[in-house]
Amino acid sequence: MTAPERRTPHSTYRLQVSPDFTLHDATRVLPYLHDLGVDWVYLSPLLASEPGSTHGYDVVAFDHVDPERGGEEGLAALSAEARRLGMGVLVDIVPNHVGVATPEEDPWWWDVLKLGRASEHANAFDVDWAAGDGRILIPVVGDDDEGAIRVTRTEVRYHDQRFPLAPGTSTLEEQHYELVSWRAADEDLNYRRFFAVNTLAAVRVEDPEVFAQTHVEVKRWFDEGLVDGLRVDHPDGLRDPKRYLDDLAALTGGAYVLVEKILEPGEELPADWATAGTTGYDALALVDRVLTDPAGEAPLTALEDRLRGAPVDWERMVHDMKRAVADGILHSEVLRITREVARVVDDVDEDAVADAVGELLACFPVYRSYLPEGRDHLDAAFARAREERPDLAETFDVLEPVLHDEWGQPARRFQQTSGMVMAKGVEDCSFYRWSRLTSLNEVGADPSVFAVSVDDFHGAMADRQRDWPDAMVTLSTHDTKRGEDVRARITVLAEEPGHWERALDELLRLAPVPDPGFGSLLWQAVLSAWTPDHLPDLRERLHGYAEKAMREAGDRTTWTEPDEAYEAAVHAAVDAVFDSDEVRAVLADLAARIDAPAQANSLAAKLLAITMPGVPDVYQGSELWETSLVDPDNRRPVDFDHRAAVLAGTAEDDAATKLHVTCTALTLRRERPGLFTGYAPVAATGERAGHVVAFDRGGAITVATRLPVGLAAAGGWGETTLGLPEGRWHDVLTGLDTDGRLADLLAVHPVALLVRKDS
Questions:
Q1: pLDDT confidence band for 5 (50 / 70 / 90)
Q2: Measured between alpha carbons, how far is 186 from 328 in angstroms, rounded to an integer?
Q3: HEC string of 498-544?
Q4: Neighbour-count burial of 522, counting CB atoms closer than 10 A to its CB (0-12 exposed, 13-18 middle, 19+ buried)
Q5: Distance (Å, rounded) from C-alpha 431 to C-alpha 438?
């Protein structure tokens, strides 16, 4: 008996399932998604999670769907409706960690706290028992608040938090855990977490028994035909991602699987992984950069240097921020690696080893290696670390063979840790300290790469079609720092650096902030989300963004030690957006200048993303303008009734053209997949040829305007013409025939999607 052929989506649509938008609500949305042209529905995590969790990444039990999200009945109903409509179902899963914020909600964690190493679930968690003298250290106690810990007859309590009592015990000293200061997490924590989140404890899915137990419900989904594919969250946290994916393929019968893997520029996904590819941040970075004017790099760099008071060295910043993370919030992980080294190397200087490990983590050029694959990345880290710290040369000599030993514990744990340091040092810190053009400060992207040429874009797309034709393409996610249309608006500033600099100087004069470099980041966010008739919740949203951005930057204020005066000045600038006529006048003038080109960028990005090689994902609601900022702003409820009405033509919206482009392109991909099986650039001739990016997917030709400000300043397309393949072509967006002359083809929309008229 042969295995069934793996089903692959033509497109997906991501829904954030939560207690406020359950699987039953999602089921009711499916007919609209089908009308939109969507092939598969893509769901956020569904397993039981912490009470009230809005995202589902804090799983507390692996054996059932979260009742707050609709439970088993909700998934069955959604799957049945998807089948009726001919749609597939893709679900996000979280293999790396569990939620332990509410211990009584996680039966495994509760049992381990109660019984210690005698618990049947003790091996499920990645705990260094020896480092805690046989106890798990739980960093929950506030400053000078030890007196709030109480021992009752049946449990331990700290305010409203509950912890179990070991059988036959009555004192804190007898427990298998110790409640310690929250400040102890940086140094003393002895269980692996998700990044630096103390309430997410890592699990050891590399253990076959743990894998089986943590995937019992996932297995049921496939055994019963409820689900067709999976998105794997944070595979870089796993001990052995390749082995995990092999195990998952065996469990699911080789189902369609994507990995949330971030690739640095030039890095490639391991070809032998059992996956269709990444979740698309690499594609997002290319789409944004082919639409960015390279001529803006020099003036915007000069502006940033002026605001910061000195040139910004991105590479140095990244190194230093990663080093700060390794010495700070993730130092407990560095110390654990150090202990692993000390177990296999005699008479090592543990302080020197910890220093050297921290330096290697700071110098690591990508998220992680997967030894023996990626050995060159480890070699590069050693080479740079030796340059940075020649005083540690002898220690590096000791570490090098140890960290190259793919079977050794130090090397394996180092690989699990490097990605944490990269994420916290870059995405969650450096991204908020460099404001040159913040549309480039996106997950999975390198802000120092300002733009890519059309030729380079074509080369990357040809490679993608050859190597990863079924990987996901995305523009917005629940984790993006800025929604796709926020970035499209900011991208215009690369074409308008002079106007932006003058407007920014005026805004900083009218509403000064202590750090003008951060002020640039803040005003780019304001401009990208603001309109004269903005939504009434925008003030609150911008205050939330400002707080997160300045505390993540961590140079003037932090989450743990906020600077009240600095933060008050930043929040006053946000209030000025709504309370100052002068500020609003500057914003209105700037917005009027960028609105039209921003919309052209938005439509270009959307059509490119839906039609380029890969499986396009539409993040919930982004078929209309997606002006969300960083989470949780991008997880707000979506008005699907309004979108359905706009699609049906019974309601109006100023983003109706974007919905039309989205629907037309998605429907063509689903109904005529044979038109999207190849990739070939389509060249233009004429003076404005640099303002178009076009490609033939094997019968469907995408045409998108780029650098619209420069195009308008040059007087439009003139006689610029696409060199179309033989045949009679027409644009499915307008229904108009074309001979390739761009002035006519793009007279209605800045994008076109062509098919042969006789096909």
A1: low
A2: 6
A3: HHHHHHHHHHHHHCCCCCHHHHHHHHHHHHHHCCCCCCCCHHHHHHH
A4: buried
A5: 8
In sequence order, the β-bridge partners of residue 615 are 472
Q: Which residues contact 384 (CB under 8 A, 6 or more apart)?
A: 363, 365
What integer pLDDT is reported at residue 527 of this predicted model?
97
pLDDT at 377: 96
Distance separating alpha carbons of residues 540 and 574, to the nearest angstrom? 9
**Helix segments in 367-407, DSSP class H:** 375-388, 393-404
- Classify 410 as helix, strand or coil: helix
Global pTM? Answer: 0.97
DSSP helix/strand/coil, 689: helix
Half-sphere exposure (Cβ direction) of 346: Cα atoms closer than 13 Å:
0
Per-residue pLDDT, averaged over 366-371, amounts to 96
pLDDT over 90 percentage in the chain: 98
Beta strands at 155-158 and 161-164: parallel, antiparallel or unpaired: antiparallel
Residues 741, 698: contact at Cβ < 8 Å? no
Distance CA 66, CA 417 (A): 30
Q: Is-contact 288 440, C-beta < 8 A?
A: yes
Rounded Cα–Cα distance for residues 741 and 751 (Å): 13
**Which tokens go with 227?**
């689900």
Q: Report d(CA 338, CA 349) in Å as an integer.
A: 10
What pLDDT digit, counting tens, does each position of 105-154 carry?
999 999 999 999 999 999 999 999 999 999 999 999 999 999 999 999 99
Tens of pLDDT, residues 489-538: 999 999 999 999 999 999 999 999 999 999 999 999 999 998 777 778 99
Tokens of 491: 């991208």
